[in-house]
Design brief:
The protein is α/β, with parallel strands linked by helices. Helix content is 44%, strand content 14%.
Length: 548
């Protein structure tokens, strides 16, 4: 039967190619809906083709009557899949609103990765989704859209939303209720015509769909409110946690952070039944905040995903330029960065937990230069801490040494495997022509250096290359701390003159801590290696005052 319907769809499509009448498009839509009763995935695929074709007819049409018909058919292609496709749901939900007043469509291109994440969470591909994004970019509103979508899909499941304060959760409750009941603004009732609101309580911040239940379809409750015995996240439901840590002040208090994490475990997480999923949105204030604790525990679990969308991309450009001017320009974010402290900028806008205690190389304690080197011929030294992929970075700083001053003129900082990084190392060596290069010999570094040497010689480039094993009687952290005074004397390129990989190198360096756990230490380790080569190795440099 399904094959017969697919054959009919091909016939209708061939007719459309020859004679693109509206009636043929309508027949195609009616027929693919029949196919969907037997093969939903194939019907949804064909529906996407029809959506694109009807959109073209609306955009390019000249007959107002036909444009209106194709517009309505295009609308139906969204409604048809809205119960199963979150992106289509978000678009259809606001269909009747003026384009410039809609929440989702002006932000759709930017928020697409998060929409896909939420789809995977709903489809059972994930157990947990963590989200960190700047303020006022729409993350919480999108998550409320998501919750109302889940409620319509499974009205009998209990869902819980929690945050740091009653005021916050009251806002979420009111916004969710508006989506379900404001028929002039939202078309939720079209998507879920058999589901209705049967009870809601502003006092208890609860909404029940289809029937009253002990644990309502939706409950909003602050982390400090009464949770135990009052809420449950049922099988098929979602625990949505948004901003458990209230502000910078709370994040600076380890005791309050621990208390907040304990409350999350004992009052929220333990209310989840097996088969429930979790969505946690939060500013990454510090490595000990609840989202950070979850990420550390489940970092290797593929069913736990952590989405970070920073304010600025690697080229220092805004990631949140939306249509109709509802987003944030590069100039806005650069001004904000210059106006607030580093801790707040990193946490609220870049999604990075800013470590305040134990930083070994704070950004404001390092030396910088504008890319212009002193007069004279420097000694050029490079060292390479080899990595083999898997999240670690090959880190290779190039140093220009002028008497008592060391300038880090370039770096290679690459997470690729050896086949990716080796050509980069060879190319950059040809570009800078260092007098000496040293490779760390551990874990295959000696073999790596030999192949680099062979390739350079084959191209007529001769460089003094040495290898040296990292000392086995000293920890990596101890080695980095030992060389930190010398590293702090180096001159690094200022932010304006850094390449993308130089910027990533500096970001890792300036967040390295001497207490606690570092996710990556490649930048700091390679600079310790450079310091060792400069002051204790074959390229020994004596620091002295200039004679003039």
């Amino acid at each position: 039967m399904a094959q017969d319907i697919e054959g009919l769809l091909k016939t209708i499509r061939a007719h459309i190619d020859c004679k693109p009448e509206f009636e043929a498009y309508q027949d195609y839509f009616d027929t693919l809906r029949l196919l969907g009763e037997q093969n939903k995935a194939k019907a949804y695929e064909l529906n996407m083709w029809l959506r694109g074709e009807t959109a073209k007819k609306v955009r390019d049409g000249t007959d107002p009557e036909l444009i209106g018909k194709f517009y309505e058919l295009n609308k139906k292609t969204y409604l048809y899949v809205a119960q199963d496709n979150f992106d289509s749901y978000c678009i259809y939900l606001e269909w009747n609103r003026p384009p410039e007043k809609r929440f989702y469509q002006p932000r759709r291109k930017v928020l697409a990765p998060l929409v896909r994440d939420l789809q995977d969470l709903a489809d059972g591909k994930l157990d947990f989704l963590g989200v960190s994004m700047p303020p006022r970019v729409g993350k919480s509103t999108l998550c409320i859209f998501f919750m109302t979508w889940l409620m319509g899909r499974n009205p009998d499941a209990a869902n819980v939303m929690s945050g740091h304060s009653d005021k916050l959760t009251d806002g979420f409750y009111r916004e969710a209720l508006a989506i379900l009941t404001d028929k002039e603004t939202y078309l939720w009732g079209d998507v879920f015509p058999t589901v209705r609101v049967v009870d809601n309580s502003a006092k208890n911040e609860t909404i029940d769909l289809n029937r009253k239940k002990r644990f309502p379809t939706f409950t909003a409750r602050s982390i400090g409110g009464t949770l135990t015995g009052a809420v449950e996240v049922g099988t098929g439901g979602c625990l949505y946690v948004d901003d458990l840590v209230e502000d910078l002040e709370e994040s600076l208090n380890p005791l309050r952070l621990q208390a907040k994490y304990d409350a999350y475990l004992n009052q929220l997480k333990d209310r989840k039944k097996e088969g429930a999923v979790e969505l946690m949105v939060g500013t990454r204030w510090g490595i000990l905040d609840p989202l950070g604790r979850v990420q550390e525990q489940y970092a290797d679990n593929p069913r736990y995903r952590f989405r970070v969308m920073p304010a600025l991309n690697e080229d220092n450009e805004s990631n949140f330029v939306y249509d109709y001017g509802v987003g944030f320009t590069t100039e806005y974010y650069l001004d904000m960065k210059a106006s607030i402290d580093d801790a707040t900028w990193c946490a609220k806008y870049m999604g990075k937990p800013y470590v305040r205690e134990g930083l070994l190389f704070p950004a404001d304690e390092l030396n910088y230069y504008n890319g212009v080197l002193p007069d004279g011929e420097p000694m050029k030294i490079a060292v390479c801490d080899v990595a083999w992929g898997g999240g670690d970075s090959l880190s290779m700083p190039f140093a220009w040494v002028y008497d008592d001053a060391v300038y880090i003129g370039d770096v290679i900082f690459n997470t690729g495997d050896k086949d990716v990084t080796r050509p980069v190392v060879i190319g950059r060596t040809k570009q800078h022509e260092p007098h000496r290069m040293r490779f760390e010999a551990n874990n295959g570094g000696h073999e790596y250096s030999c192949i680099v040497d062979e390739k350079l010689r084959a191209d007529g480039v001769r460089v003094n290359i040495t290898t040296k094993k990292a000392p086995s009687n000293q920890s990596k952290l101890g080695r980095i701390i030992q060389h930190s005074p010398d590293i702090k004397k180096f001159y690094f390129l200022d932010d304006e003159h850094r390449s993308k990989e130089y910027r990533a190198f500096m970001n890792e360096l300036t967040t390295f801590v001497q207490t606690g756990k570092n996710l990556h230490d490649d930048a700091a380790d390679s600079l310790a290696m450079l310091s060792d080569e400069l002051y204790h190795g074959t390229a020994r440099v004596e620091i002295s005052k200039r004679p003039w």
